[in-house]
Design brief:
Helix content is about 55%, strand content about 10%. The chain has one domain. The radius of gyration is 23 Å and the shape is elongated. It is mainly α.
C-alpha cells in the first residue's frame, strides 16, 4: 500500500508529454512504484486462490481434485523423463 507521503503523487502524478502534446508516460517515485507492484502481486495471488477454491475444498475433505496426480504418479513421470534424457537427474 502506498504510504501517506506518496498518496499525493498518485493523485497528481507527473507526466511526460510527447511531441504531439499528449501524455506518453507517468513518473512515480520508487516507493510508490514498489507499492503498486506489491498490490498487483497480492491481487494476482487472490485470483489464484479464488480459482483454486473448489480444489482446496476437495483436498480439505480428503479427496483428490480432478486432474491432480498422486505423488507416486508424479514421481513415475519424473523418472520416465529422466530416463528419456529430457530431464537431468
Amino acid at each position: 500500500m502506498p504510504s501517506k507521503e506518496s498518496l499525493p503523487m498518485l493523485r497528481s502524478p507527473s507526466y511526460i508529454v510527447g511531441p504531439d502534446g499528449e501524455p506518453t508516460a507517468v513518473l512515480v517515485d520508487l516507493v510508490t512504484w514498489r507499492a503498486i507492484i506489491d498490490r498487483l502481486e497480492d491481487q494476482e495471488d487472490l485470483e489464484l486462490l479464488r480459482a483454486s477454491a473448489e480444489d482446496l475444498e476437495t483436498l480439505a475433505s480428503g479427496g483428490r481434485p480432478s486432474g491432480w496426480k498422486t505423488w507416486e504418479e508424479f514421481e513415475a513421470e519424473l523418472d520416465a523423463l529422466e530416463q528419456a534424457g529430457e530431464l537431468s537427474g
